[in-house]
Model the fold of this input.
Amino acid sequence: MAKPTVSVIIPTYQRPHWVKEAIESVLAQNYKDYEIIVVNDGSTDNTAEVLNQFQDTIKIITHKRNKGQAAARNTAIASSQGRYIAFIDDDDIWLPSKLEKTITLLEANQKIGLIYSDMFFFNEKEVFPEPQSKKQPLHLACVRWMLFLFGNIVPMPCTVVVRRESLDQVGLFDETVNFCDDYDLWLRISEKWLLYYLDEPLAMYRLSETNASKDKERITRMVLAVKEKAIHRHSDYRRLSPHLLERGFYKYYFKLANLYIDRSEGEKVREVIRRYRQYRQLYS
Done:
């Protein structure tokens, strides 16, 4: 039996009412050469029952305990067969032409390791008419530097398709940088491959009270951890001008310190400043 061209990865935890919609949006794709791998990441509700409704069309892997999205995605990737890996979270939705348009571009340019698109926001009441449309780099070679300096410019994992070769080269999601494991992986891929932005909304990101991106302290801490990894990993970042390093790296220490000051956590403020001084001494 021939291997599928695309492996679609869906991690899910405690969202049976939404994962059904995510799966159905994949099944509604115009492009049909794919497999769907859903990792039930330790759900204790009726998620398993909902997934079993699709057992003839999806592969189900179950974690006995909740390990987090990065681990769930890694489990699915390890079990996948496609030349391309596409991501969709259990509360998001793809538009029908998502795979058709992204795979066409990946097949046409072997230097692209990752492609991402624009997206719509939606909630239980409406789809917001304006796409996300953050300013994106005009030149492919600029994406890497924008990722390091300005943070995760890739909208959300539901907009991303990666070439398996890129993962073979740089590795999978780092499970130690929760909430920013996607940012870390995209940055590592950008150091070896081109990233391409498709200026068209091909996915819908659900706005809800449970979105992990609301935790400012943890997000800031993990963004800083990703940047520290990059500084250690690649000397190119260390050769950036002092102005750019201040704007794209050092300022995150002060953002994190200010969050701790607002919470009167003096010991954590001192630890952040100590780390800031350590990196300034090493790389100034």
